[in-house]
Every structure is written in structure tokens, then in C-alpha cells.
Amino acid sequence: MEAAVSACQRTFPAWSELSILNRQQIFLRYQQLIKDNLKELARLITLEQGKTLADAEGDVFRGLQVVEHACSVTSLMLGETLPSLTKDMDTYTFRLPLGVCAGIAPFNFPAMIPLWMFPMAMVCGNTYLMKPSERVPGATMLLARLLQDAGAPDGTLNIIHGQHEAVTFICDHPAIRAISFVGSNQAGEYIYERGSRNGKRVQSNMGAKNHGVVMPDANKENTLNQLVGAAFGAAGQRCMALSTAVLVGEAKDWLPELVAKAKKLRVNAGDQPGADLGPLIKGASLLLDGRDVKVKGFENGNFVGPTILGNVKANMTCYKEEIFGPVLVVLEADTLDDAIEIVNENPYGNGTAIFTTNGATARKYTHLADVGQVGVNVPIPVPLPMFSFTGSRASFRGDTNFYGKQGIHFYTQLKTVTSQWKEEDATLTSPAVVMPT
Ligand code: NAD
């Protein structure tokens, strides 16, 4: 691990001084290499993580989009100027890289989330220490090799493997200037506190309990299909999975149809054709619904079928804790205001959605739900990379978010230059001891 940080330190001066156009060219080649290797990256993800191949391709694709966006660094990294602040004096700012940055990733998006991290940091001129989840290292290893093939010099991106000790090493190492973390609250709060105490910038995207509020005026067929897809896709192991439905008013009667749609989903190994849900990354005990899924040919697999828990109350453990499996918990509310209260009383504020055909209802919900990402008739509103992935309350710590303009700000620091060039000789005749005004 020390050798990896040393390599980042050693290569930082040359990498940060390389022209920004050269770095841009490397990432332009990189995005093409990711496209060329998309199937192989997806295969590695399915092998290690279990999600279906089609879903794994989406995992790579959403990360690829961040790399494509990083290629516009020449616009994104522009500073500001204000000429003629006073006579013969101009002020301008540069955005400069920080130095060595580090990323700690979760298991659920083995390609996308590492790609939120090192491409944004490196295109700005930082060198990078990446720690993928110990459960899914394969995609990161291939992504690193592809970056090398794209022309990133040896030592600019370094991968370390491990769990707690590797994480603590990153939080404590004095050469590391910034940490990006995505994962659970247990790890994220520890990393945020320890890293911040050591003077580092930390951005920490954490757990979620995402609510889909279903209004009775919503398009029923569309809404139920979206809800089922967003609750059970990737076996519920998405931070933006819509794991909680709040059925408002007459929409309460739609529950039997929701259950019928969920029952139709096909559980199978991720690389089998037609699979809707793959296995979980680890065995889960299903406490409230004992449906016993056996998948032919994979009898010892960690499969859990779609599960729906109805009549859930806010004080139940299944509601308070993130389950991170194919489980949809369903609450009921009489009015939109009641639904908003439910959403805002939950500790998490990652994503949410409202399903409605009424613009005023949608607008009210968008403004009042204290949640980072809001979808209006969109069940998993993960922002595209020209925007930023945000989060509120227990779902995020820090103040600068992942990717988009915020990502550039996180990985750079401002330098403000004030310069004076006088045409005529205006030599000071005595020391200027008064604060300049
Ligand atoms: P995790 O916290 O178990 O692991 C994430 C990383 O932290 C791994 O690299 C792991 O090695 C390390 N780690 C794990 N436990 C640790 C500990 N006690 N101390 C120090 N380091 C530790 O998370 P996971 O199970 O891999 O991922 C699932 C979680 O990630 C869910 O809570 C999900 O909501 C969250 N997530 C959030 C977002 C988001 O953007 N908000 C995106 C994806 C996943």
C-alpha cells in the first residue's frame, strides 16, 4: 500500500504538468477502449457480482458516460477572470489538481462507481489510489489495464485490495489529499470522520431507503411496471432501488396487481438468458417471507425471489433499515402531505420518485421532499454526468458531490492570482502601510 502511494506521489508532478490537451486525449482513447471491452467488463461483473449480463452492461455504460463527460475537462476546468479591478490590475483563478486522491468503492456497481472516481480526478491532473470492493475486484483491474493501454503513464493509477486495514490506511496516510467513498453508512461515517480529522476532503455517498409515492391519478400500468422494475432489478442491490412504495388514497387498491407483476419476474443465474434477477452477493435470511426459491442447476445459489411486505409501519425494522435485496415494503398514506411526511421522517435522503399525471402535485413533491434525487414518473433518477449525483441527510456527507461540475470542484482547488502591470513608471515613493482599498 505504501508503494502504491509512493507511485502516486512520484508521478504527480509530471502528470499534473502534462498539458490538459494531452490528458484529454488519453481519456478520449480510454472511452473508446471501454466501449471496445464493454462485453468483457460486463462478463467479469456478472461472474463476481451476480447481476444479469444486460444489467452489467448498463453498469459499464453508466460509468462510460462519466468518462465521456470527463473528456470535456477543457471547458469544465476553466477558471474565472475579472479584468481591471483597479488601475492596471487583473484577477483570475486557476483550478489546480490536489495531488494524490483515493477512492473506496462498494460491491454493487463494480464498474460504474470506480468510474465516478478516478477518471474525474485524473483528468484534472491528480494521481489516484483506488480500492475496489474486495468482493468484486475484477472489473476495476481490467479498467486500470485499459487506462494504461490508453496511455496513462505507469504509476498514475494504483489499485490496492483489502477491507478495513486498507481503508484505515487511506484515511490516515498524510500524502492523500481527498477521499471519495461510496457504500454503507457504517463504513462511510467512519471514513468521513477519520479522513476529515486528518485534514482531507471527503465525499461520502451512503445508504438509502428510496420511496416511490404513487398518486391515484398516476398511469396505473406504467407506474406498476416501473415500480416492479425499480424495486427488483439488480435483485434490489442498487442504492437507487425503489425499495419502498407509498400508495396514496385509492392507489392502495393496486397492491394485488403489484404482487402479480412481481411474481412473474424470472430468478436465475445472471448469465442465463431471460433472467430478470440474479443471486445476491451473499446469502440472506429472509425473515418475513419464507418463499424458497430454487433455481435449477444452481441449487446452492444465493437466490431470493421478489418479496413484497404489505401494511408496513414506520417503526418496523424492515422499514427503518436498508435491506439491499429484492424486497419492496409498502406503506399507505391518505394524502400527498402524509406521504411527504413519511418520506422526510425516514433518515435517508438518497432518491425518490413520484408517479402522477398532475403537474402541481409533482411540483409540490419535488420542492418539499428532502431527498437528493427526485424522479417525476421516473423510478430511478440517477443523474447523467453533466449533472451531479447528490444525496441528503443520512445518505451523504461532505458538501461537494460526485461528478458533473461538483466532481471537478471536489478534485481541484482554486488559486486566485492578482497581478498588476503598469505601463508608465509609477514607483511607490514610500511603503504602503494602509490596507489597499
Ligand atoms: P460497504 O460499506 O460494505 O463497502 C464499501 C467499501 O467500504 C468497500 O470497499 C469495503 O471494503 C469497505 N468497508 C466495508 N466495511 C467497512 C468498515 N466497517 N470499515 C471500513 N471500511 C469498510 O458497502 P457495500 O455492501 O459494498 O455496498 C452497499 C452499500 O452501498 C449500500 O448501503 C448502498 O446503499 C450503498 N451505495 C450507495 C450509493 C450512493 O451513491 N449513495 C451507491 C452505491 C451503493
UniProtKB/TrEMBL annotation:
<dbReference type="InterPro" id="IPR016161">
    <property type="entry name" value="Ald_DH/histidinol_DH"/>
</dbReference>
<feature type="domain" description="Aldehyde dehydrogenase">
    <location>
        <begin position="2"/>
        <end position="417"/>
    </location>
</feature>
<dbReference type="InterPro" id="IPR010061">
    <property type="entry name" value="MeMal-semiAld_DH"/>
</dbReference>
<dbReference type="InterPro" id="IPR016160">
    <property type="entry name" value="Ald_DH_CS_CYS"/>
</dbReference>
<dbReference type="GO" id="GO:0005739">
    <property type="term" value="C:mitochondrion"/>
</dbReference>
<dbReference type="InterPro" id="IPR016162">
    <property type="entry name" value="Ald_DH_N"/>
</dbReference>
<keyword id="KW-0520">NAD</keyword>
<dbReference type="GO" id="GO:0004491">
    <property type="term" value="F:methylmalonate-semialdehyde dehydrogenase (acylating, NAD) activity"/>
</dbReference>
<comment type="function">
    <text>Malonate and methylmalonate semialdehyde dehydrogenase involved in the catabolism of valine, thymine, and compounds catabolized by way of beta-alanine, including uracil and cytidine.</text>
</comment>
<dbReference type="InterPro" id="IPR016163">
    <property type="entry name" value="Ald_DH_C"/>
</dbReference>
<dbReference type="GO" id="GO:0006574">
    <property type="term" value="P:L-valine catabolic process"/>
</dbReference>
<protein>
    <recommendedName>
        <fullName>Methylmalonate-semialdehyde/malonate-semialdehyde dehydrogenase [acylating], mitochondrial</fullName>
        <ecNumber>1.2.1.27</ecNumber>
    </recommendedName>
</protein>
<comment type="similarity">
    <text>Belongs to the aldehyde dehydrogenase family.</text>
</comment>
<dbReference type="InterPro" id="IPR015590">
    <property type="entry name" value="Aldehyde_DH_dom"/>
</dbReference>
<dbReference type="GO" id="GO:0006210">
    <property type="term" value="P:thymine catabolic process"/>
</dbReference>
<dbReference type="Pfam" id="PF00171">
    <property type="entry name" value="Aldedh"/>
</dbReference>
<keyword id="KW-0560">Oxidoreductase</keyword>
